[in-house]
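note to self — DONT lose this again. spent like an hour looking for the file last time. sequence + predicted structure for the chain T wanted, 213 res
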Amino acid sequence: MSDLRSQARPDSVLEDPGTLAVATMYAQSYMTAAGPAGIAAPEEELNSLVDEVLAKFPEFNELLMSDSVGRDDKLAIVDRVVAPQCSEFFTNFLRVLIRHGRISMLPLIQNVLARLQEEAAGKKRIRVKSAKTLSDASRSQIVSHLKNTFGFEPVLQETVDASLLGGVILQVGDTVYDSSLRSRLHQLKGRLVEKAFNEIQSGRDRFSHPEGD
């Protein structure tokens, strides 16, 4: 059932819309240009660099991402270290990012590219928050319901929040569907408070206007 869950890095809530828009532009350009360049799977080299090199070799990551390292030095690093191991297409993409001062956005571009490819394949990321790790049966039920309701192939991004007590919270785009036990208890509490207030108000009205006056 692992194919029902996103293998990509979760979206960062720290990215501002402007940064995300720039990353999206680069990711779209990269994906669009890959076909004519004969690159069938443009994500492979990008994932390899970010996940296997930058994530595991912090010194190299610092050299490539740091503002204290000049543009020409970064280009020289790419030519010396990356170019011999990667396609000319991917190497040129890195050079463009460096020349425009955008190389630090590479992990975000990776994230956006994965989402664009999912959308092109009729898939969509859905954030699912549950009180405990979903069972395979629960996961399949959620996926089936989303497919039948919205018509796309959902890719679940799961997080666990014990404070929900039970149930799940689904985020589809900008819309949140909250069926958690915590939410239901909160709603019940609100209704009980409202009922008590109405009863108190009704009692005050009867006291202020007794029958027979």
